Amino acid sequence: MATERLVVIGGDAAGMSAASQARRLKGPDELGIVAFERGHFSSYSACGIPYWVGGDVTERDDLIARTPQEHRARDIDLRMRTEITEIDVAGQRVRALDLETDETYWTGFDKLVIATGARPVRPALPGIDAPGVHGVQTLDDGQALLESLDRVPQGRRRAVVVGAGYIGVEMAEAMLRHGFEVTVLNRGEQPMATLDPDMGRLVHEAMDGLGITTVNGAEVTGIRTGPDGRADAVVAGGTTYPADVVVLGIGVAPETTLAHAVGLPVGPHGGLLTDLSMRVVGHDNIWAGGDCVEVLDLVAGRTRHIALGTHANKHGQVIGSNVAGGYGTFPGVVGTAVSKVCDLEIARTGLREKDARSVGLRFVTATIESTGRAGYYPGARPMTVKMLAEYRTGRLLGVQIVGREGAAKRVDIAAVALTAGMTVDQMTALDLGYAPPFSPVWDPVLVAARKTVTALRRAGTA
């Protein structure tokens, strides 16, 4: 029997997880695997880049889970610095460009995995491509930023971060730790638009307390350059903010240029559409996963784009199993994410108020303040928990948490409850672990659930 060939486009989380899982299930005599990666690194943690830049992670290579050599030792033909420039769906082949030699060639496939990731949002603004303006999507980006920081002389050093989402607040901390005066320019009402504005305000207040200046409602119109051509200021809302370095944290969009060019189906957020097996809709021999796809939101009941390594690795496992003749599914997500800025922890899962409204859900909310340990136990730190529940049914819709040590990972309780479709009344009876060093006798999430039940009763729904 002829050996089948699997071609993988993308050498990071989803792509190489798929290749590795397929190789575990089928040997090279049954399945040949060729993977293409246009960058210098494979299987690395992009989520760890802010912590490497900030100094928590001291070595770049600590972020690399598996090198190209390690993949090749497992009979995966991983070709680095090679970009796929065209997919021929009917001919079952891809055109590759070797970025080191400029050589182009075609490679055939029996099965194809598209794991092209996401691209940073980089608006077409004057000066956006000037030296000293940095994204933080790849390890190369992180290295370039560190070199730029080292170039700035000691003394008054100023950094401007554009965007106040996860990457923006994490990079604000990294700049602070390098001794820079930090200004964050945020076009929204409050930082962390993945939270409701009332919870985002808590993040804003905490950032102010850390010495980070956050300017909300700031629409960036350009980046000014100095005589040397390097960025020296950011212009927003008629105000000029001096900068020795500019960091872009505006977000990402699915990288589906190749897929779109050949008519593969994309959703409302620009990501590829797949079925539960991660197979591209309408194409039996093409799969897609990672940051280039849209996934089902189990709470809202519609697709959304979420760029997270947790999802990408799961997608890869499912794809690899299916490609190799096994069976796996990815049912969807509830939208769980955590982050931090210095010692402030930020977490969310499920729907925000505007998400619930956008899908026509009626809801009640409750917000409580508590501590991560028993109040009398040394080191007890405050946290705020906000909870949303569906009007009448009491079904949990979402939770947001802002606080200090021990706050963020409590969101996992809510993530499990959301996945299980629990009501807030059912949540109040959860048998959670308790001891004074870890929690008050009533965990903050359960206190929020109790208050939400009360809000439902007052609304005449429980």
Give a verbal description of the structure.
By secondary structure, the protein is α/β, with parallel strands linked by helices. The longest helix is centred in the C-terminal third of the chain and has 15 residues, at 309-323. A hairpin with a 5-residue loop joins strand 5 and strand 6 (104-108). 26% of the residues lie in helices and 28% in strands. The protein has helices spanning 13-25, 49-54, 68-73, 139-151, 166-177, 197-209, 257-261, 309-323, 353-358, 411-420, 424-427, 444-458, and strands at residues 4-9, 31-37, 77-80, 82-88, 93-98, 104-108, 111-114, 118-120, 133-134, 158-162, 181-186, 213-216, 220-225, 231-236, 239-242, 245-248, 252-254, 286-288, 295-297, 302-304, 337-341, 344-350, 363-371, 382-390, 396-403.
Attribute tags:
462 residues, alpha/beta, 5-stranded parallel sheet, 12 helices, 25 strands, 26% helix
Write the layout of secondary structure elements.
Blueprint: E1 4-9, H1 13-25, E2 31-37, H2 49-54, H3 68-73, E3 77-80, E4 82-88, E5 93-98, E6 104-108, E7 111-114, E8 118-120, E9 133-134, H4 139-151, E10 158-162, H5 166-177, E11 181-186, H6 197-209, E12 213-216, E13 220-225, E14 231-236, E15 239-242, E16 245-248, E17 252-254, H7 257-261, E18 286-288, E19 295-297, E20 302-304, H8 309-323, E21 337-341, E22 344-350, H9 353-358, E23 363-371, E24 382-390, E25 396-403, H10 411-420, H11 424-427, H12 444-458
Parallel strand pairs: 1-2, 1-7, 2-3, 7-18, 9-16, 10-11, 10-16, 11-12
Antiparallel strand pairs: 4-5, 5-6, 8-17, 13-14, 14-15, 19-20, 21-22, 22-25, 23-24, 24-25
